[in-house]
Amino acid sequence: MNVSVVKANGETVASVDLEPSDSVRELQTRVWRVTGVATTRQRLVHKAAVLDPAASLADSLVEDGAQLTLVILPGKILTASSDGAARIWSLGTGECTEVFDQQQREEFERRSAEVMSATFSPDGASVLAGIYYGASEVSELWNIRAGEVTQFFVCGFCKVLSAVFSPDGASILTASDDCTAVCWSVHSGDRVQTFQGHSQVVQSAVFSPQGALVLTASADGTAKLWNAASGKCTRTLQIGGRGPRSAAFSPDG
Hints:
By secondary structure, the protein is mainly beta. The protein contains 1 helix and 20 strands. The chain has one helix spanning 24-35; strands at 2-6, 12-17, 42-46, 49-50, 67-72, 76-80, 85-90, 96-101, 114-120, 126-132, 137-143, 148-156, 160-165, 171-176, 180-185, 191-196, 202-207, 213-218, 222-227, 233-238. The model has no long low-confidence stretch (mean pLDDT 88). It is 5% helix and 47% strand. InterPro entries: Quinoprotein_ADH-like_sf, Ubiquitin-like_dom, Ubiquitin-like_domsf, WD40/YVTN_repeat-like_dom_sf, WD40_PAC1, WD40_repeat_CS, WD40_rpt. Keywords: Repeat, WD repeat. WD repeats lie at residues 77-99, 160-194, 195-236. Residues 1-72 form the Ubiquitin-like domain.
């Protein structure tokens, strides 16, 4: 079946081929891939009713050739702080709408924690937070809708200074004070690749827009470019001084 998604002004956003058994959330994911609008900001309206993302298209009475209206909610801001919490704020109202803090953490001892970094997943459905507990480091993946931790990435006795998603959302990349950057599987929570070669703290690590490369910035005065799959360093940039605090790719990679 084919479903069209349009804006309120009638402009076509996407035309998608799906099965009646597919969920509304799957349709939202397809819209996200085309528009870049996170699924959490999407509301799909059909016959004056807002569709439930968990329901199937058939149960939502969406038929072949149907035209759905896309309503985009105001954007969100994510902050990380030393009080142990990551917070989501409404860009429209300036109000805090979600709090992810240590009071909700049951798997680890509730002690003084500091959120070193926080970022949204590419589809906007999850939050990744790097938590420092004073003696060990854990990165947590939170489901925004459920407000629950869905995955832990146990980094050990080091301090993670940044944590980011890969462009496809299937992996995360952490940079830490043990002089390494590590790629993790979002699905399993396991280490996939370790990038070793810096002699001092790795202050940031990011994926290229296509996800094939990794760029690290270190206090050893260098930035390094790595092959994401093999973990091999392909180029070293000599910055000098105290080294770069961060490094980033251009949008075209």
